[in-house]
Design goal:
single chain, 479 residues, 5-stranded mixed β-sheet
Length: 479
Amino acid sequence: MKRSFMTTLPDKTGAFLEASRIILAHGGNMTRASYNKAVDAHTLFLDVEAEEHGLDAIEAELTRAGFLQTAAYVKIVLAEIGVPDAPGATIPVLELLAQHRVSISYISSQPASGGTVTLKLGLYIEEPGVIEGLLRKLSEICTVRILDYDAGEKRLDNTVFYLTFADEMRRLLRMTQEQTSEFIYYTNLVMQQLDDKGEPPGKTFEYISRFAHFVSEHGGTAYDCRITAQRLTDRVSVTVIEPPCGSNITVLEDEKTRALLVVDGGFSCYARLTMRVLRSVFPDFDLRRKEMLLTHSDSDHSGISRYFDTVWCSRRTADCFASEHLGQPCPREENPNMRPYYRLSNLICDYVPPELHRLRQLDSQPCDDSQPLSQIGRFSFGDMDFTVLQGNGGHVPGETVLMDDRHRVAITGDDYINIHDCIAPQAEFNRLAPYLARSVNQDSAKYRRILAALKAMMDGEGWLLLPGHGAIIQRDQRL
């Protein structure tokens, strides 16, 4: 098992050595240590692997030795606490303060929305090391926001900073306490990676906050999509829905049978909004025969999969979803540079992998990974007959492209995106991901070869492209 510790190093020589010996003495293996002086000169993040009883013993001894005490310099914390507007609602809060020997130096209250009362408390901390445990326990029974503190020479205390950021994200994204802890853990990993590149820590938190706020602020009435419809063949028409962020939702309609094929489906957090748009474009949507097709496994493409009984994808894409259901890393997470961003994105966008019983595989023959793109099967819809091609892992393993040579129509997923014609919110969002993830591609060199092979197959002209992001590429446009 693995456990993460946010430790406070005493200001003495050999402190890290002492912590290391404690971990080793109980059969622990330290798999990661992260220290960033720019955020806090004393805090060290440790990942430790050991048996559960060993981890418990390590935590207990680190606590006795003073390594798990934080906020050692905090004297006053001004906190805003939300409790139900009901008799006795403040009793549990006061009991926690008494248990931690924390006095109240200031208090005021006022009614808030939703049947709650907001308390502003000045918490006078006389004993070092109590603030982290107190704030964590308070956050389990009520909302907590840190407003101000006295930290010696006004140095930002790491515990208060992280918990304040965590509380902001928890409230914004409506996360559980467990999800909030995971969010902070992966935020720290992203910060560590960017710090290795010389990026300031504050910039990491700024971009993650912008990412989370962007997703939150573009829901509801702000979920404003560009919708484009046109005919592809004598029998099939297409409607492309471009959301503020996440993949295009591309809908093929067989006008003879009225069947629908929905290719990709945006983020999970927008699923109900996406379905509302689909039902407005196709008023009898729920009555029609419909299937879904996923071009690849990224979380911004599978958001509405639960609304379809049949979801087509490549075998490798299905394998990725199966790994996620088992709690195992998907290909994105096997890349250490990608994993923290991918996990943060999943938390922010409420990702849930598609249910495996819905999946149907596109493969009828194996992929030739010696080629950038190779055929793995065929797929028909209406009067269209697609060759199903799979890339060899440039963007992500399992990526597929569908090409109808007779009608010269290609569905490219993210192996070709129209970065030159995205709606303004999508263009803004697209600038956030590369900073946090370094690259949106699993292997950029392979991706470039896939893109070159795709362009060569289309002879450079006369093709209509339905990309994973951005507007339709018309037949008279140059790639």
